[in-house]
Amino acid sequence: MTFECKIIKESNLFFGENQSTIDPKVGLLKFGPYRSSELDNSPLTITTGVISTNEYFENLKTWLERLSYRIEGRVIPDSDVRSIDFPGINKESPLRFEIKILESSVEIITKSELSKVFEIDNRKERILKIIEI
Fold this sequence. Notes:
Layout (H helix, E strand, L loop, with lengths): L12 E3 L3 E3 L2 H8 L12 E9 L1 H14 L29 E12 L2 H8 L4 H10 L1
Parallel strand pairs: 3-4
Antiparallel strand pairs: 1-2
């Protein structure tokens, strides 16, 4: 049996200002997210709903709040190498969008309800159980 190896060239990803690059970090930081209409380059608000226990919901809100600010890149010890800073998810950052939780789309479930879901081995049945809850 023989195998043939091929290197598949990475495709460019598309970003704002109709620009493309291979690296998603570079593309997002330099050009922002891709928009289907480049005429509307205004910042976006992405609204989302949440199904969670109260504890996890509070953790999610804290995490999203932290992500809204710049996070310094990690410095690699004993080198001049430093990873790219995360600019933060907010309308003023290079990413030009924010994530808002729509309070009317939040469903808090109890830990006991959640534990009943994890007792089920079959994935389809777990999904049906969480929908039922």
